[in-house]
From TrEMBL:
It holds the Pfam family Peripla_BP_4. This is Monosaccharide ABC transporter substrate-binding protein, CUT2 family. Residues 53-308 form the Periplasmic binding protein domain. Keywords: Signal. Residues 21-44 are annotated as: Disordered. The keyword Lyase does not apply. The keyword Signal applies. Belongs to the bacterial solute-binding protein 2 family. It is found in: Cell envelope. Residues 1-20 form the signal peptide.
């Protein structure tokens, strides 16, 4: 098998951050290049374009761009006019964006990433206003109900890559964590890290890191300082690819690429280039295809609007990707990864005869 599949939670069907203006994507302006529907569009999609608000908190890097592109492609295929706002690391702006979306009374609202304290009260308001709402990678408290929760299986992604780390370096070794708190996916991955460290008697010698508008660049000096204090660390877990790229650069700056192994989460074409570069310390990652996820989130809310989706949550599977296999198979793009591991395509997740995967 090309990639080791991460242990997955049951599929129920089916990261953030500079200010930008709203943009709209009319279904007629960017036709889908995906599979053809075998049935006509049902109501409400069989008349004028259906307006759906996408309220984003994205960050730097290819991941968020690919997610957005997947969402746009699927929206076009479903006759959806997708109105997009992106707060880009400004929580106050995302709160304002989401309130404005509620006030505009769209057919549905999609929330892509965000801080719990910012999003929770506004999701309550959206639901109370009768607006179907779906969130991606946002941790909301138990008293927030009536929405659809979607996410990567962050726990299984972390477990897969950390199992590989322990396999590579063994137990009773010095390790470091470069991450940030307050972000739902990073918090979930961090819980797995704590357990793996304890179970394998690993010694965490440092924890540093932050998420910013320039995450990769801003983490280089933090990791550089940690490595100067702990040059004997054997491995670093950096569970967000923009952080991982900063870690790789810091390791190389300290000429430790032959001694320190780096483990990440997420993947993009730029990440693959870093992983396969000569002497790269980034030896493994675990990932989903963000473009596929963006499309699947749009399909899920589309099915909800058509009265064909009754679940409350959806989780997306991922795979372990190792540097060794990338080099052996000459894999250089995310498209190559999806071909090698077709389950990433999500062709059976939140689909219908009128709503195939368009990503």
């Amino acid at each position: 098998m090309l990639f080791a599949t991460s242990a997955l939670a049951t599929l129920l069907a089916v990261a953030s951050c500079s200010q930008s203006d709203s943009t709209e994507s009319d279904a007629s302006s960017s036709p889908s290049t995906g599979p053809t529907a075998s049935a006509p569009l049902p109501s409400p999609f069989n008349a004028d374009p259906v307006t759906v608000a996408l309220v984003r908190q994205s960050g730097a890097g290819d991941y968020f761009e690919a997610w957005g592109q997947g969402a746009q492609k699927q929206a076009a295929a479903a006759n959806i006019k997708l109105t997009v706002t992106d707060a880009r690391n400004d929580n106050a702006k995302q709160a304002s964006d989401l309130q404005q979306a509620i006030d505009s009374k769209p057919a549905a609202i999609i929330v892509d990433h965000g801080q719990t304290d910012t999003i929770a009260p506004l999701v309550k308001k959206a639901v109370a206003a009768g607006i179907p709402t779906i969130v991606y990678d946002v941790a909301l408290p138990a008293d927030v109900t009536g929405y659809i929760n979607t996410s990567q299986s962050d726990e299984s992604l972390a477990q897969a890559v950390l199992d590989q780390m322990v396999k590579d370096i063994g137990q009773n070794q010095k390790v470091g964590l470069v991450s940030a708190t307050g972000f739902a996916p990073l918090d979930r991955r961090g819980q797995v890290w704590k357990k793996v460290v304890a179970d394998n008697k690993l010694q965490q010698v440092f924890f540093t890191g932050k998420v910013t508008e320039s995450t990769a660049t801003d983490n280089i000096p933090l990791v550089d300082a940690a490595l100067k204090q702990h040059p004997d660390v054997k491995a670093i877990f950096a569970p967000y690819d923009e952080i991982t790229k900063g870690v790789v650069q810091a390791v190389k700056q300290n000429n430790l690429q032959d001694k320190v192994k780096v483990y990440g989460i997420d993947i993009s074409n730029a990440d693959l280039e870093v992983m396969t570069a000569a002497g790269s310390p980034w030896v493994a990652t675990a990932a989903t295809d963000p473009g596929q996820i963006g499309a699947a989130v749009v399909r899920t809310i589309s099915l909800k609007l058509a009265g064909q989706f009754n679940e409350s949550s959806v989780q997306f599977p991922g795979v372990l990707i190792t540097q060794q296999v990338l080099k052996e198979k000459s894999i250089t793009t995310v498209g190559d990864v999806v071909k090698a591991e077709p389950k990433l395509k999500l062709d059976t997740v939140s689909v219908a005869d009128w709503l195939p995967n368009a990503a």
